[in-house]
Amino acid sequence: MRRLPTTPVAVVGLGNVLMGDDAFGPTVIALLRAGWEFPAAVELVDGGTPGLHILAAVHGRKALVIVDTVAGPGAPGDVHCYRRDDLRALPILSRTSPHDPAVLEALALGDLTGEGPDDVLVVGVVPASLAMETTLSGPVRAACPAAAALVVAELAWLGVPARRRREPTEPEAWWLAPAEERP
Predict the structure, then answer these.
(1) Distance from C-alpha of 20 to C-alpha of 154, rounded to nearest angstrom
(2) Apex 104 CA angle, 142 and 133, nearest 5
(3) For residues 66 and 80, what is the distance between their CA atoms, to the nearest angstrom?
(4) Helix 138-158 crosses helix 24-35 at what angle (to 10 degrees)?
(5) pLDDT, tens digit, for every residue of 6-34?
(6) Which member of 56, 105, 116, 169 has the lowest number of beta carbons within 10 Å of its beta carbon?
(7) Taking the domain 9-163, which CATH number applies?
C-alpha cells in the first residue's frame, strides 16, 4: 500500500445526467457519498461535462480517479480500468463535441507544468445509450456498485481509505428516482 496521508486526491465523476448512461460518473459519486466516509485528503467531485475546466480537478493533485463512460470493448455495463500509462498512449485528438471532458489535454498540461497527478485511474463503463433521457440502462445501473468498489479499493491502495457508513443514506441523485418522484 502506498502512503499519501496528507496529499490531495480527487475522485471525479464525469457525465451529463440528461444523456442516459452518461450519468454513470455522477451516479457513482452519489453512491460513494451515500455509502462511505472519506478522509479529508479525498475530494469527491461531480464534474459534469467540464471541457478544459477539468484542469481544476487535475492541477495540484497527487492522485486522480475519474469515473466516466468509455468507448471500450465489450458489452454495455462492462467496466474497464485505465492507468496513467494507458492514457498517455492515446492520441490527443481535436475536440469535436462540447461533451468531450478534455481529460487527456488536462493531464498533458499537468505534466507540462509539473502540477499534474502522479497516479491516475479511469474507471469506465461501456454505455448502452447516450440518448437524451434521465434513465440509466439496466446494465450500466448494475455496474455502478462495482465501479464504486473499484474507487474505494484504489483509495485504500493510495493510503487514504474510505470507511463504509454504518447506515448508508439514499444517494442524492434526482435522476435515480422514479419518474413520478422527480422534481
Answers:
(1) 26
(2) 40
(3) 12
(4) 60
(5) 458 999 999 999 999 999 999 999 999 99
(6) 169
(7) 3.40.50.1450
Q: Which of 135, 138, 142, 137 is nearest to 179 (CA)?
A: 135
Question: Scanning the structure block, which residue is given the C-alpha cell 502540477?
Answer: 115
Q: Where are the domains of the chain?
A: 9-163
Pairwise CA distance, residues 132 & 157, whole Å = 37
Q: Is the pTM of this model over 0.90?
A: no
Per-residue HEC secondary structure of 1-53 comes to CCCCCCCCEEEEEECCCCEHHHHHHHHHHHHHHHHEECCCCEEEEEEECCHHH
Contact 22, 69 (CB under 8 A): yes
Q: Facing residues of 19 across strands?
A: 133
- Using CA atoms, how far residue 32 sits from 96, 132, 150, in Å, is 31, 25, 11
pLDDT tens profile 61-88 = 999 999 999 988 999 999 999 998 887 7
C-alpha cell at 93: 485528438
